[in-house]
Amino acid sequence: MRAGRGGAAWAALALSAALAGCEGNTNNDSVAYFAVTRRASLNSDEVEANEVCSSPSISADGRFVAFASKATNLHPDDNDLQTDVFVRDLQTGRTILASRATDGAAPGAKANGDCFNPKLSADGRFVAFDSVATNLHPDDADATRDVFLRDLRTGMTLLVSRESAADPVAGPDGAKLTMKSIAPVLSADGRYVAFLYGDGSAAMFPVNVVLRDMQQRTLETVSINPFTGTSFGVDCQDPCISADGGHIAFTSIDDPMPPTACRQVFVRDLLAPTAVIASRASGAAGNIGNQASSRPALSSDGLWVAFESDATNLLDAGLDANSCRDIFVRNLGTHTTVRVSNANAGTESMGASYWPAISADGRYVAFVSQAANLVNGDTNGVADVFVRDTVGRTTVRASVRTYGSEANDASGVPALAADGVYAAFTSVATDLVEGDHNNTADIFVRGPLR
Predict the structure, then answer these.
(1) CA 423 – CA 62 distance, rounded (Å)
(2) Cα angle value 82/87/90 (rounded, 5°)
(3) Closest CA relative to residue 343, chosen from 372, 375, 386
(4) d(C-alpha 55, C-alpha 65), whole Å
(5) Segment (H or E) for 338
(6) 3-state secondary structure 55-75
(7) Among the four 44, 168, 246, 404, which has the fewest Cβ within 10 Å?
(8) 252 Cβ partners below 8 Å, 6+ apart?
(9) 3-state DSSP assignment of residue 7
């Protein structure tokens, strides 16, 4: 049957890799685990997407991958050029359209507006996304961008962008929010959804990070400034939530008055009244970053936070001399900050690194880098995806072909499975898998990485 063909093909490819060894491998991979690279942005008949695919999100076990795409051939119910959300089951080879209204006797109506920023729950059951569509929920008839949560098991689509349900006049679920809601992130079980909310009409707008409890039907602002004890007065960005839903990371301007304005990473323990600054050097009162930091990623318990930074003062004097953006990880319990965008020899990267993702235990960090000195044999001259083992202090390249040869074009936007064994990413390379002829960005998954 076709449903099982995708999984069987992957198993056969893994066996082929095992038998062949790692011929041509320039990626520091051991022949002991036979990593396989496969494409996720396919329809259920294994046909490649006919438009760009982006924003990958991967389930905890690496089986499911959500992504956004304008493609018109990924699902029979989608034949327009609007951006939609899809979920691919890498085990069965089935691709479903997730950006649709609640199912009835027939599948729910496809979204009539663009949908962005998909995020999967740990088991792949729930997918959150934001959309300007007006037909996804009966309580949403305007084109304001809102956050939705799709239950792929029951076929129900919920409106997340709501006030708390404390007011009985507002109905059982709370009134719909009036301003823009974007960039949702999910706790592992799908209960908590954090997202950006506010008036997006200005260049620096008062957007805060809010948290919706889908079980208790409450909404609270979680981006609380440690200096003022109130919500931030300028824009917050890059929301991130720990798997347990107890910690929220985000970025904001620590001082809104130029010329000292500098974006910092903050982490809020929801048991604490305010957030703390994470983009700082080692020590409870270590130097706060002297240049912008962004894109935080949290471990499952919120203890570890990875982020990218242009700051030059997060390490001891003289240790950050590459004049490039780097990836750092801070342990919020021990107050230590280390750089992870390093080569296997321990030397610093000779190119910008950005877009970190972190494993559940904080040990593995994926990131994008333009550096050519992180692994041996990096000669393609484009950005690649790497995974750093912070305990073993080794770096491997994930954006490579099954047998380890490098990609012929750029890759980015990594997402890591919970144990760090599988990495999803985007790439415009045409040689990562056989039969890539669409000349556009695709979604790939590589693993097991150890």
Answers:
(1) 8
(2) 140
(3) 375
(4) 10
(5) strand 336-339
(6) EEEECCCCCEEEEEECCCCCC
(7) 168
(8) 223, 225, 232, 234, 235, 236, 237, 263, 264, 266
(9) helix
Query: What is the rounded distance in angstroms from the CA atom of residue 182 to the CA atom of residue 117?
Result: 8
Q: Is the torsion defined by CA of 298, 299, 304, 308 positive or negative?
A: negative
Quick one: tokens of 68?
């956004």
Inter-residue contact 174 to 216 (CB < 8 Å): no
Rg (CA), the chain: 21
- pLDDT bracket for residue 23 (50, 70, 90): very low
- Please state the separation of Cα 420 from the chain's center in Å: 13
- Cα dist. 192→121, 165, 180, 198, 222 in Å? 10, 15, 19, 19, 12
pLDDT digits (tens, 9 = 90+) for 374-427: 999 999 999 999 999 999 999 999 999 999 999 999 999 999 999 999 999 999
pLDDT beyond 70 at 64: yes
Q: For residue 36, which of 53, 49, 22 has the smallest C-alpha distance?
A: 22
Task: Please check whether residue 363 is in contact with residue 391, taking contact to mean a CB–CB distance below 8 angstroms.
Answer: yes
Instruction: Name the one residue in this structure whose structure tokens are 């349900």.
Output: 165
- Residue 131: enclosing H or E segment and its boundaries? strand 126-131
pLDDT attached to residue 31: 41
* Nearest by Cα to 145 from 171, 174, 193, 113: 113
Q: Could you identify the residue written with the tokens 């009409």?
A: 201
- Three-state secondary-structure class, residue 170: helix
Are 286 and 337 in contact by the 8 Å Cβ rule? The answer is: yes
What pLDDT is attached to residue 186? Answer: 98
Q: How far is 65 from 45, CA to CA, in rounded Å?
A: 17
Distance CA 150, CA 140 (A): 15
Half-sphere exposure (Cβ direction) of 182: Cα atoms closer than 13 Å: 17
**Whether the Cβ atoms of residue 113 and residue 84 lie closer than 8 Å to each other:** no
Longest Cα–Cα distance of the chain, Å, equals: 67
Domain extents for the chain?
49-221
DSSP state of 23: T
Domain 49-221 part of CATH 3.50.30: no
How far, CA to CA in Å, does 335 sit from each of 34, 154, 190, 279, 314?
A: 37, 43, 29, 11, 12
Amino acid identity, residue 344? N
**Angle 447-22-13 (CA atoms, 0-180°, nearest 5)?**
55
Residue 348 DSSP symbol: B
